[in-house]
Amino acid sequence: MHSVRVRGIYSTALSYILSEMGFRIVQPSDTIRERLGLEYLKESPEVDIVDTDGHNGIRVKGLENGVEKIQDTLRDVLYPSIFRRYPLYMNGIYKGVVKEIDYSKRAFFVDIGEEIGFLPFRSVDSVEELDVNQEVLVQVKEMPKGKMKAVLTTQLSVPGKYAVLISDGSVRVSKKIRDQSEIERLRKLGEVMKKNWGILWRTAAEGKEVSELVSELQELENEVTRMLKLAKEKEAPCLIRGDERVVEIEFTKESKEILDEIRRKVAPTVAGHHKYKSLERDLSPVVDFAERILRRVPDIEREISEELRKVYWERITPGRNLVIEHVKLNGEVIHLGRFGKIIDVRENDVTIRREIRGQGIYDGISVPIEEGDYAETTFSEGAWYYRTKYYDKDGNLKGEYFNINTPIEISPWRVRYIDLEIDLARTADGEIEVLDEDKIVEYREKGFITDYIFKRALETVEYLKKRLRGDLHQGEGEESHRADT
Fold first, then answer.
1. pTM, full prediction
2. How far, in whole angstroms, is CA 267 from its chain's centroid?
3. Taking the CB of residue 210, how many other CB atoms lie within 10 A of it?
């Protein structure tokens, strides 16, 4: 089975899931080894799992077969999650064509076939040597996300199990190798063995026989030669070398609750552990302290969890600004309502008011935006939708908009959810319209959303239509559209 290295705030739960499914966990932390009873395997991983930048999900990257198997495994367990599979190869080497030079952004825009990538001037050895329509060999350094393009570099690398050949000609040693004599041994070997490309020794090289290291370096040199020959023969834009895939998994409120349950099997875990760790980072020491108490007194988990929840919600107060973190299915994050003021806080519910600025037409209700308009939006923890009411300056209702989304997470500073594209609107005279139903179908076909999320989204739309038509009694069906029931 494939080897995988897991890092980040979800590492205990994910390591448990994957080890139970037969994956080999390599380079585990001391804490993970103790909790799961794992032996320490120093070898380089075939797949790496790390937190995404906002800590609300993970990035799975590595050999294509391994990434695919891990994605399938996690899709079964963490079914309320969003799965984004990128078409480009991470660290893939492409023969591209310069399409544009943007001096204001200090970058070239390069066609690599799958898309137009972003090549910063700082990632090019000699900016003056590149011009429009010129071919260039580049490597994908960062994957595209939302409206952001893939970030490219001309500083190429070809990885192996123990070493990485690097085009800058330097010799380096992994910072995780601490033994000075071993560092010196590897550095001297690198200086003797390097040819046109430099060498970065990986952690797994520590203690390995010289013959084994030399053998891999020769294989990597042959790979570089083959790759450069192919680059001369093939017509740009095209892929030259790619074996590392990337899947990004965005966790919803329900996903984090499943991860809480799994972590609880091997370590004391308060309710909301992964929510607090991802959304409210300054609570992390408090969570750690609470769970240290639970190691000694496990029977008070319910009481400790409730006290943490109270502390969390007491920080959400009227008058405070609350940002709406509107996450698109393609990974783009839009911050709506940056200046929204909290006007009401109730059990699990927060209402904010925003002054509407600008011009145009309100989506769905087809009425113009006018000076003095304002909106009131109510968010309910765990709900699959939220409602925004639009008013004119005199307080007359102009219409309502219902956003369909993954279960809402509320923190003292922000509201977070993943927008599921499909929405519903009602005009002031009661006309109801479902919007963009084709988009959620498209994302389901791409594999971004699971059958579970697709079904829940459509059920929420039907529930709202019945409720707005008056086909339901007060409160009927409401609880089924909260994630925590």
1. 0.84
2. 25
3. 11
